């Protein structure tokens, strides 16, 4: 017969130390591999960090969740959202650096300050919705916060801390989350050429790659010479780098071959001859000071922004080139499926709705063709009627 699991509260006590202030010690029991219960001790923090028992108890809630994982949900204490956050950060954070940093920032700046002390059963959809509405953030940023809270509560469902199917964030709406606050800037060929003329190497070649292939900057700084097959004119995009943390490509669809035009290949080979790093395992664009990939924000701040200002432009960043690439694909008449694969998007809707913008002249030409189709017969008919009226006795 299975032995009923009892809820374990553990105990806290202040322990004096030879050096430094008193520290909170949490004592609990843990069952080892032989089935024996053994007492364990964990130092939570100093009395300066947690001035009273209540604050120290909140600090161990995430540990208590793990200790009581097999206790029926009905017998669990009501857990504060802060404990759920601690457990999520410890056990569920993504390994991908850029995603993890984004989650950590959202939790630290927005979610924890507002909701950490709330019991899980006190967090209601309308309260969250009203809070999001009051944040001075773009709708898309609010949507990211909502998505992360939904994910955290999904973990709470899996850990039996709330009832299955009772995720309160599922009912939270973020108004206009798909609308842009401003349209992305698209460069003309003349504007791009002006920016390029103001850049020195290796940033000049990096920007050429960005505009000719539509790669993300995290993919450009992570390129190695071994990724290029100059004989067969292809490039395999297979990794990304953010703040010198190298990872796999952003998605399964991002990891793909892209064609390499002979003229672009010639530009890259010219840069290879100038570079000190030419082996297959070497970075194409290494930071001369460290030998590692660049921090893309620094290049944008110090070089691209300055070059854009010299060209009389503002608000130009790395993603401007990717948006412009999609627009130029449209201009050249590339079929939408081809555009999706060159952009390496998982969904064609992203290619169609998020990236690209039809230039005014193209819209004017297309509109003029429609006007001519509509009015030409009408003008001809009017002329014929006028001629018939003149010819009549």
Any chance you could write out the topology, listing elements then pairs?
Layout: E1 11-15, E2 23-31, E3 37-46, H1 53-59, H2 61-67, H3 81-91, H4 97-115, H5 125-134, H6 139-158, H7 189-197, H8 203-213, H9 217-220, E4 228-229, E5 234-237, E6 239-242, E7 245-248, E8 256-259, H10 262-274, H11 296-310, H12 318-331, H13 336-343, H14 348-353, H15 360-391
Antiparallel strand pairs: 1-2, 2-3, 4-5, 5-8, 6-7
Radius of gyration: 30 Å
Q: Strand sequence of the main sheet, in spatial order?
A: 1-2-3
The proportion of strand residues reads 5-15%
Structural class computed from helices and strand pairing: mainly alpha
User: Helix and strand succession?
Assistant: EEEHHHHHHHHHEEEEEHHHHHH
What name goes with the CATH superfamily of the domain at 189-353?
A: Intergrase catalytic core
Name the helicity range: 40-55%
Spans with pLDDT under 50 lasting ≥5 residues? none
Number of helices: 15
Name the CATH architecture of the domain at 189-353. Orthogonal Bundle
Describe what you observe in this structure:
Among the domains are: 78-181, Tyrosine recombinase, N-terminal domain (DNA polymerase, domain 1); 189-353, Orthogonal Bundle (hpI Integrase, Chain A), CATH 1.10.443. The N and C termini lie far apart (115 Å). The protein is mainly α. It is globular. The chain contains 15 helices and eight strands. Helices cover 47% and strands 11% of the residues. α8 packs parallel to α12.
């Amino acid at each position: 017969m299975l032995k009923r699991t009892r809820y374990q509260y553990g105990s806290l006590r202040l322990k004096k130390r030879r050096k430094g202030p008193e520290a909170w010690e949490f004592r609990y029991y843990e069952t080892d591999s032989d089935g024996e219960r053994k007492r364990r001790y964990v130092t939570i923090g100093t009395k300066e960090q947690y001035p009273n028992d209540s604050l120290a108890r909140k600090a161990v809630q995430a540990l208590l969740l793990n200790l009581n994982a097999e206790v029926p949900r009905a017998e669990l204490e009501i857990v504060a959202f802060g404990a759920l956050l601690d457990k999520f950060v410890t056990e569920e954070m993504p390994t991908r650096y850029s995603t993890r940093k984004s989650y950590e920032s959202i939790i630290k700046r927005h979610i924890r300050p507002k909701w950490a002390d709330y019991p899980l059963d006190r967090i209601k959809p309308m309260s969250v919705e009203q809070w999001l509405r009051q944040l001075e953030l773009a709708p898309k940023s609010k949507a990211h916060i909502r998505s992360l809270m939904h994910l955290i509560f999904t973990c709470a469902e899996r850990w039996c801390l709330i009832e299955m199917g009772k995720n309160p964030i599922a009912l939270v709406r973020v108004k206009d989350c798909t609308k842009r606050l401003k349209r992305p800037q698209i460069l003309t060929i003349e504007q791009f050429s002006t920016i390029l003329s103001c850049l020195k190497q290796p940033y000049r070649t990096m920007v050429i790659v960005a505009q000719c292939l539509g790669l993300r900057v995290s993919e450009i700084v992570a390129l190695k010479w071994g990724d290029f097959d100059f004989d067969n004119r292809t490039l395999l995009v297979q990794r990304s780098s953010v703040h010198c943390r190298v990872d796999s490509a952003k998605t399964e669809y991002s990891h793909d071959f892209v064609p390499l035009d002979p003229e672009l290949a010639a530009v890259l080979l010219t840069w290879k001859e100038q570079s000190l790093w030419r082996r297959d395992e070497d970075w194409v664009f290494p930071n001369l000071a460290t030998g590692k990939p660049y921090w893309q924000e620094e290049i944008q701040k110090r070089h691209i922004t300055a070059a854009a200002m010299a060209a009389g432009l503002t608000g130009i960043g790395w993603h401007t080139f990717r948006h412009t690439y999609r627009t130029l694909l449209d201009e050249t008449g590339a079929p939408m499926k081809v555009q999706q694969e060159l952009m390496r998007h998982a969904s064609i809707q992203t290619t169609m709705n998020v990236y690209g913008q039809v230039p005014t002249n193209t819209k004017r030409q297309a509109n003029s063709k429609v006007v001519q189709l509509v009015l030409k017969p009408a003008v001809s008919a009017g002329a014929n009627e006028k001629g018939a009226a003149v010819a009549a006795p």
